[in-house]
Amino acid sequence: MKNIKLSSKFSNLGLYASLLVLTIVIPTILNTVKNQGFNGKVIFGGIILFAMISFLTYLFMFVCSAEIKNNTLILKKQFRDPETYTFDKIEDITSFRLKTTKYTTVKMSKAPRNQGVEKYIIINSKSLFFKDKIDAEEKLKELKEISK
Length: 148
Known about the structure:
Blueprint: E1 4-5, H1 11-36, H2 40-62, E2 64-69, E3 72-77, E4 83-85, E5 90-98, E6 101-109, E7 117-125, H3 136-147
Antiparallel strand pairs: 1-2, 2-3, 3-4, 5-6, 6-7
């Protein structure tokens, strides 16, 4: 099997760009609170900011770059060493889409069956500039079926 990249080329760039935007927004909101005090708009903005921070933290914990190489699945999370899995280790595959970006969650069983599962998120973008030709969810489901 040839090498196939499942994650978007710019997944990590998008993740770090979101972090940069968030670090710019936080001082802006704090300045608004300082000038206007607490009111409904500021509280609503704070709730949205908290949701953004929570989602970004979740992504930093689980987003990975994914590649199929030599009949194995190589998944590398942020700040961690790459993990190599065979296709029979694929436990569960789910996904959701936000506009043009698809987030595919895959749970992989660890080496001995009794060690639990590891969760990974693979990001695919269908935007105009970064159109990915391979749908990670469909490819993983296909590989899971083949390995049975």
